[in-house]
């Protein structure tokens, strides 16, 4: 399990996170973040529309982790089984990112504007998973509900993962939550 | 099924909705909304912090519709059965509000800033339901997941309700979605 090596976006996010913790979100400027990451403001704005966006990675890449796994699921997998494969893929993608994810979650929890943005990210992920399920033949209504269940499992597991000290496997946690949901509903 | 009689908050929301449809969200000011509702700007700001808030009712009242029903559920009701009672109560609360809810949903769908606010409203409702379940003895983890399932059922049903022409019963739709979730998960 290799350590995550950040690119320019990742370095800007790391720099922003350090500064938000040190000075607070409000008191940190885009210029501060760019300087800490060793890039120009212009580079910052090539990657992010504004300061609030810096803790939110490329949605195409992020949602793609889930939707590629759904698309690659065996043709005879049920929608929920395809969703479980997406949760495993997401767990793998987050390997090595636990320290960053923990600090990021703490900063987001402390700032309503960032919490809002996080909710929108979750909504877009849910919609992307639903679309991926429809693309493999699931009906619209079942796809929407399966995507919601996947999103619930992932975000509940993520909340447990970032509040845990030890680095447990996010994929295991998420599939475990899916089983808890089954137990509740059945 | 009586028609919903709006109070000052409701009149401001109705006025805002008309203006957002007529002129667009960006071009409408708080002064415009207050004038249309026949109140002063000061009255507007007694009820809402800013223009974005005007389509979002009192969260204590709104969340209370769900949480009061959870609290009033029979002691031997399972968490998910208590949740189903909350969905019925919410359906009842929305009776007579279908025309307003439809127009409101269309305006929200057209404005990312309002969609974000709607997601936050959903998050707070989910948290409130979880807290109500914990208060009646459900464990934290089961309460969080049951609240998420309730929220999924409600919001999926709500989406169907506001896109439907005829006034179907929102409570029936929501309990129906809960059954669909059960069928998917079991």
How would you concisely characterize the structure shown here?
Chain A has 186 residues and is an all-alpha fold.
Work out the radius of gyration of chain A: 17 Å
Percent strand of chain A: under 5%
Q: What is the string of helix and strand elements of chain A?
A: HHHHHHHHH
Mean pLDDT over the residues of chain A: 92
Q: What's the CATH superfamily of the largest domain in chain A, by name? A: Tetracycline Repressor, domain 2
What profile does the largest beta sheet of chain A have? none
Helical content band of chain A: over 70%
Q: Enumerate the spans of chain A where pLDDT stays under 50 for 5 or more consecutive residues.
A: none
CATH architecture call of the largest domain in chain A? Orthogonal Bundle
What's the CATH first level of the largest domain in chain A?
A: Mainly Alpha
Classify the fold: give the CATH topology of the largest domain in chain A: Tetracycline Repressor, domain 2
What spatial form of chain A do the alpha-carbon principal axes imply? Answer: elongated
Instruction: Note the total helix count of chain A.
Output: 9
- Total strand count of chain A, please? 0
Question: Largest interface: which pair?
Answer: A-B, 26 and 26 residues
**Please, how many domains of chain A?**
2
Secondary-structure content class of chain A: mainly alpha
**Termini distance of chain A?**
36 Å
Assembly of the depicted chains: homodimer
Question: Can you describe this structure?
Answer:
- The structure is a homodimer of 186-residue chains.
- Chain A folds into two domains: 1-55, Arc Repressor Mutant, subunit A (Orthogonal Bundle); 57-185, Tetracycline Repressor, domain 2 (Orthogonal Bundle), CATH 1.10.357.10.
- Helices cover 73% and strands 0% of the residues of chain A.
- Chain A has helices at 8-23, 30-37, 41-47, 59-72, 79-93, 98-109, 112-135, 140-163, 170-185.
- Chain A is built from nine helices and no strands.
- The longest helix of chain A is centred in the middle third of the chain and has 24 residues, at 112-135.
């Amino acid at each position: 399990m290799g350590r995550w090596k950040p690119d320019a976006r990742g370095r800007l996010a790391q720099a922003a996170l350090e500064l938000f913790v040190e000075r607070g979100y409000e008191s940190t400027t885009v210029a501060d973040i760019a300087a800490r990451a060793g890039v120009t403001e212009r580079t910052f704005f090539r990657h992010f529309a504004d300061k609030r966006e810096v803790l939110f990675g490329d949605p195409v890449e992020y949602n793609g982790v889930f939707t590629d796994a759904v698309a690659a699921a065996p043709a005879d997998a049920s929608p929920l089984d395809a969703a479980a494969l997406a949760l495993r893929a997401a767990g793998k993608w987050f390997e090595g990112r636990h320290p960053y994810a923990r600090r990021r979650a703490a900063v987001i929890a402390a700032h309503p504007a960032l919490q809002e943005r996080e909710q929108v990210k979750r909504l877009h992920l849910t919609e992307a998973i639903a679309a991926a399920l429809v693309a493999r033949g699931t009906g619209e209504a079942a796809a929407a509900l399966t995507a919601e269940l996947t999103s619930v499992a992932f975000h509940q597991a993520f909340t447990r993962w970032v509040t845990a000290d030890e680095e447990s496997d996010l994929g295991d946690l998420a599939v475990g939550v899916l089983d808890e949901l089954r137990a509740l509903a059945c």
